[in-house]
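Comment thread on ticket #2218

A.B. wrote:
> Attaching the input chain for the structure job we discussed in standup.
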Amino acid sequence: MLEKLLSFSRHHKMALLMLLDALLLPLALWSAVLLRLGGNWDPKLDPYLWIFAVPPLWVLPIFIKLGLYRAVLKFLDDRIVYTVFVGVSLSVLLLMAVILMAGIAPFPRTAIVIFWVFAMAYIGGSRFFLRGIVRRIDALDAPRRPVIIYGAGRAGLQLMAALHEGREYRPLAFVDDNPQLWRRTFRGLTVHDPLTLPQLLQDSGAEAILLAMPSASRGRHRQILEQLETLHVPIKRLPGMADLVSGEVRVEELREVEIDDVLGRDQVPPQPELLAANIRGKVVMVTGAGGSIGAELCRQIVKNRPARIVLFELSEYALYAIDQELARLAPAVARTPVLGSVTDTARLSSVLQAFAVETVYHAAAYKHVPMVEHNPVAGIVNNAFGTDSCAQAAQDAGVATFVLISTDKAVRPTNVMGASKRLAELTLQARHAAGSRTRFVMVRFGNVLGSSGSVVPLFKQQIAAGGPVTLTHPDITRYFMTIPEAAQLVIQAGAMGEGGDVFVLDMGEPVKIIDLARRMIHLSGLEVRDDYHPHGDIEIRCTGLRPGEKLYEELLIGDGVLATDHPRIMRAQEYHLPPAQLAGHLAALRSACAALDAPRAFAELQQVVHEFKAAAHTADWVAQAAGHNDD
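C.D. wrote:
> Ran it. Output below, let me know if you need it in another format.
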């Protein structure tokens, strides 16, 4: 019956509510008079029975004017009390005026006050009673997932209210670190000590934990998630407070816990003057604009209002994607998407000169270690000679600042990718030593979370597929940083350089990749399958180090490092080759690459990058195939 009523049109529901009020108002007045008379009816009131039927005549129009019947029952909130209060109070005043003007002397005056109380209770109570029924029916139609909310602050209470209105989750309890909140209840949900979570999960049957602490620091998030990891239940979190305030997301939009919540540090706020120094009001170009780092650099750059941003990218689709994103993000910033390769000096020169580019962020590179290891000529040409071509074009066009995005793999490299990036650094240092008017700056950092080709997206895919999660060695470690933080630090470091500088970013503590894999599995609510847990969900399998892969990465070649004004940016003191000596090596290497002679190019690369310790089993796939064909 109730379900049929709920299926009525909006106008029919409004008519039914008005009919309900038309019955409740006379009942409230009748109850008030009887209560005032002690349950004994006064016969003197018989001629005035019409007074019990007239309140709806003026109360219903008042309620219509106040919007009482426009409110949707399921989403009623406490404001409905104010609407009913105003409407009933006005009706009582009118009732009193009618009684006085009609001269109804037998009518007990104090009954009018009692009528006000009863009308408030009948009208307001009926709304909340109907709201409860509607929500219960709605909940039965869509069974909701039972959850526990971590955080009983304002965000947690807002989340609880939002979940009560929704159809996905059913909150069962709160947990909070504040002892003063323990054993308190909010809308029937009790706040518990986090130490009781294991027992609480078992008793309540909750299937997930919702982390409602959007204003907590990244460090605090990491501590909480490390505690929750052992529970092996899925964890979702509210978005950050900045996203909530900006309106980009709502409080009920829960997100999966990302691995950077566990591994990340509290970010040092960027220095606005450094962010703006090479960007504000200038023409800026980003090479590799469609890549992970390049795209984030573009996002950070447009926030600092350049005169124009030139997007230089080889991949047509990647260029289209970042151009469309920037059009939505910063429509007022002039932008020019340009297709081209960083190995094409003529194309670079024409672009830089045509737009009078003042700052270049060079992010274009081949970075996937195993791929470059077996395609060494392509890696050297793109990473080293591409950088040199871009630098030459920048010099010719009078670019003021050129910032190279380098890598920790350039430090004592064991692979072609790292060696080619170190050679790129050497070419810029040589140009600076030769007295270039362009200021060349290099920024070196480690892995960024979520970038293309990194382990985090790969692990997510493998976990979603049921495993196994594969890594190359149980002892392998890496430095990690979020993409936005890395991009901000690159821009700030570029503003501090005087020319020929190599900056290294404080990447925090290195992370064991096997620990990262375990945490990602646990935060997905699953168990690692190993000798101790043979019935676990996901196996972690080690496949062996790949060609050129290191167990540990470093950020410095030598021991010399100088502090800067920024706590996360250091200036490295690295060796560089005299320009004449480097030119000879580059000529020999360029000749080998032009001839597609991979073995000779590989040997020349070892000559110019002194600390390059090549992997013994590195081989060019094309050279191998050609050798087999000769046989």
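A.B. wrote:
> Thanks. Noting for the ticket: The longest strand covers residues 169-175.
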